[in-house]
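Lab notebook, design round three. We kept the backbone fixed and only want residue identities now. Task for the bench partner: fill in a sequence for the structure below.
Input structure tokens:
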């Protein structure tokens, strides 16, 4: 996403150019460490099979798996790596794990960037936000996400890639990616039945279901409760958090910074944050605090009704 969507005097054009330089090394190291964490947690879950301790191990593996959303997000911007093929390959891996094909997600996400918090044009707002505590808890379960992605990718696989935010030129590729994705899923299902194996179900499907609520809580904090309008430092939230969350999310807790300057790679966002911190207008004092505030406001609203 190379077009400029936001301007601010907080960072000079020269500094922005330097921060936007793309390199392979940081992305490769970060991605390798992310995969190593998934592999280690998978090995732990396998070693604990047959015990109750396997459940928290599968949850931890699932959290690391669903946060492959972060490199997927970074690579559809093509900022994780300098080489385009690396960005596209990692985007495909993340998209396959999360049932979120990269070409479709790129179209969706770029429309979100151009029209952030615009109820008429931001595709993230096409489905109304929950208005009750029960609605938010259903959202946090992650089940609405999986239901929506199954329906969307099946519809696209049947040739109906006609969402308004998908450019005409991208629609054949969106449909093709959905078909490839479902071919992979069906092959895994057939192979599992043929070999009598529950490995995919236990070590992939179950962890993804268990881990998705953590990703929903993280994404819930990005814009919910922030101001509408075009000011990226007001309509997007930067959330203070610990090093592990920043690692899993590839520095996207610096979310206002990313929305203001989406060409800046993940590894340069901490530096950008230090420069623009005085101008941030929507901040979170931790994901737990943000989620509690949102749920509390909904609960109070329900009580008032």
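Proposed sequence:
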């Amino acid at each position: 996403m190379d077009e400029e969507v936001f301007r601010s005097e907080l960072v000079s054009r020269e500094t922005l150019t330097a921060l936007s330089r793309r390199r392979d090394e940081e992305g490769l190291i970060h991605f390798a460490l992310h995969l190593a964490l998934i592999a280690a947690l998978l090995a732990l879950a396998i070693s604990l099979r047959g015990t109750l301790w396997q459940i928290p191990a599968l949850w931890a593996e699932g959290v690391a798996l669903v946060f492959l959303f972060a490199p997927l997000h970074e690579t559809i911007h093509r900022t994780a790596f300098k080489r385009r093929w690396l960005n596209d390959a990692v985007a495909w891996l993340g998209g396959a794990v999360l049932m979120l094909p990269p070409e479709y997600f790129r179209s969706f996400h770029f429309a979100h960037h151009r029209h952030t918090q615009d109820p008429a044009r931001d595709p993230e707002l096409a489905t109304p936000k929950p208005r009750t505590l029960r609605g938010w808890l259903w959202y946090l379960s992650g089940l609405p996400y999986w239901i929506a992605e199954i329906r969307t990718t099946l519809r696209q696989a049947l040739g109906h890639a006609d969402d308004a935010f998908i450019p005409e030129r991208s629609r054949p590729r969106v449909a093709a990616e959905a078909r490839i994705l479902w071919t992979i899923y069906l092959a895994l299902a057939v192979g599992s039945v043929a070999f009598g194996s529950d490995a995919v179900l236990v070590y992939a499907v179950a962890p993804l279901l268990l881990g998705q609520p953590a990703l929903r809580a993280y994404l819930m904090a990005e814009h919910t409760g922030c101001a509408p309008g075009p000011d990226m430092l007001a309509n997007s939230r930067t959330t203070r958090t610990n090093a592990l969350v920043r690692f899993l999310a590839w520095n996207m807790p610096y979310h206002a910074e990313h929305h203001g300057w989406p060409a800046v790679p993940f590894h340069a966002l901490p530096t950008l944050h230090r420069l623009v911190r005085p101008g941030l207008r929507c901040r979170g004092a931790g994901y737990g605090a943000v989620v509690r505030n949102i749920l509390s406001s909904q609960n109070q609203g329900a009580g008032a009704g």
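Keep this in mind before ordering anything: The longest helix spans residues 171-195.
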